[in-house]
Each structure stands twice: as structure tokens, then as C-alpha cells.
Write a structure and sequence with these properties.
Elements (H helix, E strand, L loop, with lengths): L1 H13 L4 H15 L12 H17 L26 E4 L4 E8 L10 E4 L1 E2 L7 E3 L12 E7 L5 H8 L2 H10 L1 E3 L2 E3 L2 H5 L2 E4 L2 H46 L1
Antiparallel strand pairs: 1-9, 2-6, 3-5, 3-6, 4-8, 7-8
């Protein structure tokens, strides 16, 4: 019954061309703004999380497990496009990336948990990301990609959803360059990308809630598609009947 209430309520708003996609976009934007789940004072603040990741990266560099990298520009209050909850923090994606290098869709170095980001492709694909889950090929990203090693102190699903969001697509559109008929981005387009950072525990709650709602959108889209197919079938029958009567 609860599921039907959801469809009955949201279906009215989604029943137009692009309506379900608009719902998807609103769900992700609410997630990015911290408006999708409740906040908890028991969660470790994002500022503490970022400090832990910074120390983790410094230790890996000392042990020569990863190469050193240029620091990303400091994020200032003037850079913030909107206000975040009290225990969140604005940062840049480079602050949670341990290492980034070029690769290919068949790069044998890619391992589960890594990010693959399209470095060159059409305007619709450049900058899109995919989490490696035992299959590093991600053919939808094209032949030339960037391979990102992320800190395990963050939930990669939150960063994947945010990176592939409409806000992320707009960012890459503004930070890509033309290479013939394709678009391309530099490594710094990734590392300098502004990111809202929730506490680690809230990242998980946000992803779980967003995933459920996006699943509802998929089901709603399927219901609307089946309904439209029935309507088209009835219309065809009516037209056929009219033609027979002429």
C-alpha cells in the first residue's frame, strides 16, 4: 500500500515528457544539498573525515605507495554555490582522491573500488564515472579514461552519484576542451571539482535513501511506459475501426 501511495503521488508530477528524469534530478540534488535524510549529532563531522584522509595520503606518499601530487586550490566561502548542513564541509574532489592517472578501459591495474572517469569522448560521456566492481572494462566510458584511487574512508557510491549528477555534467561541460569531434578534460578538472562532503555515516544513509527513490523512479517509468503502450494500442484499434467504417 505504501508503494502505491508513492506512485499515486509522484505519478501526477511525472506524467509529462521528461517528468521521471526531472524527479531523478531532484532526488540527486536533494542528496547533494543534505536534504534527503536527517542529520545526527553523533556522526563524525566531515572536517574530521577530511583531516583523516589528508593524513592517510601523506603516509602513503612517505611510504612511496603513491606519488606526490600538486595541492588543490583551497575552497573558500565565496566558492560555495549553496549552504551545507552544519557537520558537512565543502572541499574539492582531489582532497579524497589518493592517486589519479591515465589508463584505458582494459587497464589491468584497475581493481574493485577504483573509479574510472571518461577523459575523452562525446559531450554526453566525458567526465562520467563508473565504480570498478570486478569488471574494470566500463565500455560505456570510451577508450581513454582516468583511473582514480579513492580513500576507503568515503563511500564511493556517494561520489559516483554526485559526479554523474546534472550539476556534475554542467561542470564538465564548462571545463572540457574540444579535440576534433570529441571533448576532453585534464586531470585537474577532476581534482579541482567542488564537492559537498557529508559525514561518512551520513554518506551511507544518503546513498541508501537515494537508491530506493531512484528505484521507485525506474518502476514508475516502467508503469508509465506500459500505460502509454496500452493507450497507443487502443488508439490504433480505434483508428482501424474507423477506417473500416468509412
Amino acid at each position: 500500500m505504501e508503494r502505491e501511495t508513492f506512485f499515486d503521488h509522484f505519478g501526477a508530477f511525472a506524467d509529462f515528457n521528461g517528468g521521471v528524469d526531472a524527479l531523478r534530478h531532484q532526488i540527486i540534488f536533494s542528496m547533494i544539498q543534505g536534504k534527503l535524510v536527517s542529520h545526527s549529532d553523533d556522526d563524525e563531522p566531515a572536517s574530521v573525515l577530511l583531516d583523516k584522509i589528508r593524513k592517510e595520503k601523506e603516509e602513503k606518499i612517505k611510504r612511496k605507495e603513491i606519488p606526490g601530487s600538486e595541492p588543490v586550490p583551497e575552497f573558500t566561502a565565496a566558492d560555495a554555490p549553496f549552504e551545507l548542513p552544519a557537520n558537512w564541509a565543502w572541499s574539492r574532489w582531489g582532497d579524497v582522491i589518493l592517486n589519479i592517472d591515465s589508463g584505458s578501459k582494459d587497464d589491468p591495474r584497475s581493481k574493485p573500488g577504483d573509479f574510472l572517469v571518461a577523459k575523452k569522448g562525446s559531450g554526453d560521456t566525458v567526465g562520467k564515472s563508473s565504480i570498478v566492481k570486478g569488471n574494470p572494462h566500463a565500455p560505456e566510458l570510451g577508450e581513454e579514461v582516468l583511473r582514480l584511487e579513492m580513500s576507503d574512508k568515503i563511500d564511493p557510491r556517494f561520489f559516483d552519484l554526485t559526479n554523474n549528477s546534472p550539476a556534475g555534467r554542467a561542470y564538465y561541460a564548462a571545463n572540457s576542451v574540444d579535440e576534433g569531434s570529441l571533448k576532453a578534460i585534464e586531470n585537474t578538472a577532476i581534482t579541482h571539482m567542488p564537492f559537498p562532503i557529508p559525514p561518512r555515516a551520513e554518506q551511507e544513509r544518503l546513498v541508501e535513501k537515494a537508491s530506493r527513490l531512484l528505484g521507485f523512479c525506474d518502476e514508475l517509468e516502467e508503469r508509465l511506459k506500459k500505460r502509454d503502450e496500452v493507450r497507443r494500442s487502443l488508439l490504433e484499434q480505434a483508428v482501424s475501426q474507423l477506417l473500416q467504417e468509412v
